[in-house]
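Do me a favour: review this protein, sequence plus structure tokens, and tell me how the chain folds. Record follows.
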Amino acid sequence: SSSLVAIQRAVMSIRHEGCEMAIAGGSNLMLSPMQHIMFSRVGMICADGRCKTFSAAANGYARADGVGDVLLKPLADAERDTDRILGIILASAEHHGGGASSLTAPNPHAQSRLIAEAHREARVDPRSIGMIECHGTGTKLGDPIEIEGLKMAFDLLYRERGLAPPAVPHIGLGSIKSNIGHAETAAGVAGLIKTLLAFEEGTRFRTLHCEEPNPLIDLGGSPFM
């Protein structure tokens, strides 16, 4: 999430500190085998080099090099300068991961609070959302916990607006890690760039290597598909 935190800080600087323009993102270069060896020893790396997000075959993540950044400006300034606007950040939120038993077992309650906070600030009707770019590392335990956090957040957002649960799922879930691997400190901005490309192409890109869903993931009664 490092690159997303950088983007969040840039957004806050533009909104509250008089910053007129910012370039924010992250980079990840695998210049030494030491981290790969360490992550392999604790069971975080998949043996076959495929990140199987939300899959029953999920067995860890594939590491990736990556560099990405975005140029951020106030919307009025971008319109005035006739910039090519790829997307608009309505709101952003940053949160600690919360108390958890391990690095690979995040806290769904902390995640749900973060998601709900961002949506409240954006004043977005949850029924209008068509896709969510997830963290989705491709681990048997982490992926279901992330989905549980999303379900808790959207259940709350629907109830706060007095809305009944959706009769038909309308939010596609995906993760760019199934396409390019986990770029670690550049993973967040990679997901943001993928989302911008989805806007531009008008399509939801398929999440790969997920022929059979993780049996611990239950999307029943949720807005997700």
Notes: The mean pLDDT is 94. The CA atoms of residues 47 and 220 lie 31 Å apart. The chain is about 35% helix and 10% strand. The helical segments are 2-16, 34-41, 75-80, 108-122, 142-160, 177-180, 187-201.
